[in-house]
Write a structure and sequence with these properties.
With 235 residues, the protein is α/β, with parallel strands linked by helices. 45% of the residues lie in helices and 14% in strands. α1 links the parallel β1 and β2. The structure holds nicotinamide-adenine-dinucleotide.
């Protein structure tokens, strides 16, 4: 039985991925700032803190074995006019969305190279397709994540490790609902549905299905790819 770690696994897309991978038969541990109290393998970890990651993963290895699947879904966003964006705000967004992935990948690599097999999926964002006003830090971090994905794919392929990114667009999660409440979406979710080719909002399960495929044996020849899951909003 393979063991996966999902960051941001307590909410929204990350939670959908946890549920799907468990249904697929994997052992799954989650690293999240606000872990679920009901989940026996949920660890309270800030992905910007390598010591916290290392401590949690030591426990995961003891209980569930070597970690050969990693899905990075932890993320935060910030809507702020660039004129007013402070460097501290910029730094925190880059820290969580990009540096967090640096830390988790480095932490699991020894397990994957020892197994000569691994799967890494990075959840980026559809905003990287075209940019997004008032989200410069977030788009910069997520674009960096796409670039990191491509470079790691080339470097880690010889070790049997694939690295892909899934940029979601318009997925019904607490993050999206918060943005709607604050009127940051440029319209309601219902209005956006009318502008979405498949005429619905996305679900965490849509992203989870893509992850499930990308971590499967069948996807062993797919690496360095950016697989948009966005209902056709970005092509
Ligand atoms: N919902 C969308 O439409 C959408 C679109 C594009 C990209 N995304 C990306 O998908 C991912 C999941 O988003 P979501 O919509 O499910 O959001 P969400 O807010 O529902 O979930 C994000 C999770 O990440 C955790 N988290 C935040 N900072 C963390 C940290 N420093 N360390 C550990 N955990 C941390 C949160 O506690 C939360 O459980 C994010 O990376 C987000 O940027 C979402």
């Amino acid at each position: 039985m393979k063991t996966a770690v999902v960051t941001g696994g307590a909410s929204g897309i990350g939670l959908g991925i946890v549920e799907r991978l468990r249904a697929d038969g994997l052992n799954v541990a989650t690293l999240d700032l606000n872990p679920s109290a009901e989940d026996d393998f949920a660890y309270q970890v800030d992905v910007t803190k390598p010591d916290e990651i290392a401590e949690a993963l030591t426990d995961v290895r003891t209980k569930l074995g070597p970690i050969t699947v990693l899905v990075n879904a932890a993320g935060i966003e910030k809507y702020r006019r660039f004129h007013n964006l402070t460097f501290e705000e910029w730094q925190r967004i880059i820290d969580v969305n990009l540096h967090g992935v640096f830390h988790t990948v480095q932490a699991v690599l020894p397990d994957m190279t020892a197994a000569n097999w691994g799967r890494i999926v990075n959840i980026s964002s559809s905003s990287t397709h075209s940019g997004q006003p008032f989200m410069a830090a977030y788009v910069a971090a997520k674009s960096g994540l796409n670039g990191l994905t491509k470079s790691l794919a080339l470097e880690l392929g010889p070790y049997g490790i694939t690295v892909n990114a899934v940029p979601p667009g318009f997925i019904d999660t607490p993050m999206l609902r918060r943005s709607e409440e604050k009127q940051l979406l440029g319209g309601t979710i219902e209005e956006h549905i009318q502008r979405t080719p498949v005429r619905r909002v996305g679900r965490p399960a849509d992203i989870a299905a893509a992850c499930s495929f990308l971590i499967s044996e069948d996807a062993g020849y797919i690496t360095g790819q950016i697989l948009g899951v966005n209902g056709g909003r970005n092509t």
